[in-house]
Amino acid sequence: MNIVCVCGMGLGSSVIAKMNIQEVLKTMEIDASVETCDLGSVRGVPADIYVTTRELAGSMPEEYESKTVVLMNFVRKADVEAALREHLQKRDK
Amino acid sequence: MINEILKPECIRLNDEATTWRDAITAAGDLLVKAGYTTDDYTKEMIAAVESLGPYIVIAPSLALAHSRPAPSVKKTGLSLVRLADPVNFGSEHNDPVSIVIALCAVDHVDHLEMLAQLSKFLGVDGSIEFLKACQRPDEIYRQINHVE
Questions:
Q1: Is B71 on the interface with A (CB under 8 A)?
Q2: C-beta separation of A12 from B55 below 8 A
Q3: Which residue from A10, A91, B77, B78 has the highest number of Cβ atoms inside 10 Å of its Cβ?
């Protein structure tokens, strides 16, 4: 599985999200690669899941909507894990 | 053990900014004074919010102000401003903001260890409440930099 964290610059918020997602994936025992990307380049970056913030979600390409997880809190691992679990459950139904 | 990612002179408590622009400017000014950036970078951080929205408010009360690597960045670094009175950035879920951490990086790699340490600190339950309440800059310095 391939996860891409998307923020405005691909430098700050998405890097923090990536670090926390990697930690959470370890505890969930899910094997996945996690990368970062800025909003402007996201069309050229294929992924199974995109993670972004509420403010940027509306600017994501429409075709990614079903693959996008929206996080309100990038630093709290419990929130990150809950959002990922919910998405995976929905997706794998 | 100490691993200094945030210098003492880059911490400012009880700043009296009343708008999100002033709050980012206060954090940007610390970066300029510490020799990390020029004033242009502060303007770039503000422009990022103007064009992309308040997505830098990554947790309740906390904004991670930043722009991208640019000529205005001389060295990779961080600053932290705590506001006397929280201000709104326009974030639906995480306003109002009390803590502004400004980040500048010379490229997409140099800041990763620094951010890993910051992220680890912020990931501990209660860390944001600590930053909101602590009255001693030296105590914030010790916590973020892991001084024993």
A1: no
A2: no
A3: B78
Structure confidence by residue, pLDDT tens digits, A6-32: 999 989 999 999 999 999 999 999 999
- B66, B93, B108, B111: the catalytic one is B66
> What residue in A sits closest to B94 (Cα-Cα)?
A72
Q: Which domains are delineated in chain A?
A: 2-91 (3.40.50.2300)
Q: What is the pLDDT of residues B38-60, one digit of tens each?
A: 999 999 999 999 999 999 999 99
Which residue type does A5 have? Answer: C
- CATH number, domain of B76, equals 3.40.930.10
Please tell me the total count of domains within chain B: 1
Is B105 in the A-facing interface, judged by CB distances under 8 Å? yes
Q: What is the model's pLDDT at position B147?
A: 67
Q: Per the CB < 8 Å rule, is A19 touching B48?
A: no
Is B66 among the residues known to form the active site?
Answer: yes
The verdict on residue B1 lying in a domain is no
